[in-house]
Amino acid sequence: MNLFGRKKAEGARGPDPAQTILQMRQTVETLEKRQVHLDKKIEQQVTEAKAKMAKKDKRGALYCLKRKKMYEAEIDKINGARLQLEQQMMAIETTVTNTEIVQTMHQAKGAMESARKNMDADTVNDIMDDVKDEMEQADEISQAISAPANDVLDDDDLLNELNELEELELESQLLEAPAIPAAPTPQLDLPAVPTTQPAEKVPVADQEDADMKALRELEASMALPA
């Protein structure tokens, strides 16, 4: 029989870090509220001490100052406790973060091992050598295919073909040469043919009769009345 309580089961899961941090933050908030309350108490004791000094009650003022010191000592304890809790919370958060980092790295290691399964450095080197050999063979085949045959690039045949092309080009230029234009026909400078009808001539006798008639009409219009 265990006199100090039940023995902790082996492999039992410890407290949850997130829940522990939450409880510690609640404790810190409680301490902060306690400190605010004590600050008000200190201000109250200072006010009472001043009032007692005004009444010449030194013993009462001294008692108020002692209580003020007691409250200040309590605040110092609260600040120390808060500091310890905050340090522990930071340590727990750091531990949780480090644990997650280690777990992630472990998973990454397993993924890498799974990815390179059945593959080692010697195998990779052999594959690279095979690839290099295949590329060299492919290059040799390409060069062999692209190499010109001797009869295709014979200089004499090419020169003869070039001369034939020059002769054909010369004949084409002669056939396409423009014809010589004929000499222009001289033109005579002749007067233009009239296009209007000549004015009809009035007989001389008729012209004189008309003049006389106009003269008589003028004299008649100028004659004075009797």
UniProtKB/TrEMBL annotation:
Localisation per UniProt entry: Endosome
Which GO terms of the cellular component aspect does the record hold? Answer: cytoplasmic side of plasma membrane; ESCRT III complex; multivesicular body
Q: What keywords tag this UniProt record?
A: Endosome
Record region (Disordered): 183-207
Which is an annotated Pfam family here?
Snf7
Give me any GO biological process, just one: vesicle budding from membrane
Predominant subcellular localization, coarse grouping: other
Family classification: Belongs to the SNF7 family.
Name of the protein described by the UniProt record: Uncharacterized protein
Native source species: Chrysophaeum taylorii
